[in-house]
Amino acid sequence: MAYIDWSPDLELGIDLVDQDHKVLVALLNQAHECMGDREEAATLGSVLNALVDYTEYHFLREERVMDAAGFSELDEHRELHRRLTRQAREIRDRYAVDPSGVRAVEVMDFLRTWLMDHILKQDFRFRPAVMARPESVDVARTIEFETRDEDHAADGATGAGDSPRDAATVGGPVDFTTMSVLVVDDNQNFQIILRTIFKGLGCPDVRLADGARQGLDALNQAPPSLILVDWRMEGMDGLGFVRAVRDQDITVPIVMITGYNEPGFSDRAREAGVNGFLEKPITARGLVETVSRALHDVRSAA
Length: 302
What we know:
Blueprint: H1 15-34, H2 40-69, H3 74-97, H4 104-122, H5 127-132, H6 138-141, H7 150-155, E1 180-184, H8 188-200, E2 205-209, H9 212-221, E3 226-230, H10 238-247, E4 254-258, H11 265-272, E5 276-279, H12 284-301
Parallel strand pairs: 1-2, 1-3, 3-4, 4-5
Keywords: Iron, Metal-binding, Phosphoprotein
GO molecular function: metal ion binding
InterPro entries: Bact_response_regulator (IPR050595), CheY-like_superfamily (IPR011006), Haemerythrin_Fe_BS (IPR016131), Hemerythrin-like (IPR012312), Hemerythrin-like_sf (IPR035938), Hemerythrin_metal-bd (IPR012827), Sig_transdc_resp-reg_receiver (IPR001789)
């Protein structure tokens, strides 16, 4: 059962903003689902990271729309964004340092109050200005997820979700709207986290496999343009899956998800055919950067 059900009452009627809000609601619901998960520190930590990353992206897009529409209360709204970002970062960073020191109810109460209050009470204030100038939305469509807002970046302490580099400097911008992704992970919460992030980035086709065997079956149906696979899985592990994929002469980029650091593992994984690594708890920006680098490496080797 969803912690928050999306309803027409939450819709501004501005498609781009509504889609962003739906992603944030999905992440909030996933945070609720992750409580008590067998990998809670990795799953809930990843959701909190993604919430901070996607919120910064959404706030930047929203502010560009308000500016283009000539919204008279932009400065006040921007300051509210800064305050909410600081609060979200604080909870995320506290959880990263000591998961037991952050009460689950505190996280959920803050996120629910923040999101619902912000949408219902604050965002509806700029709706008339944008509706009067619908072309103002176009400026936000040009913003890549990798774009950093200097005001946001300078506003708070760096944390697990802050990427020191733009993904564009690593392997070039990634057009997720043309990609198909296969996620192979026996943790369903983690599957859904990744699917939510990819959907938020515009990826139209995200397939989920509960383990290596199911993942191999999915490859027989239609090869994706990117594979993400967890290292530790019941039965065939991630390395076994990668070797089986490469034995089929499938050359798409493979990113391995791991929360462990074993000496020599990365060398063995690269020899098996892994193109990049994503450490748990993941961040949305870290995901984009890793995918960008993996795609670049595969293209360079071709």
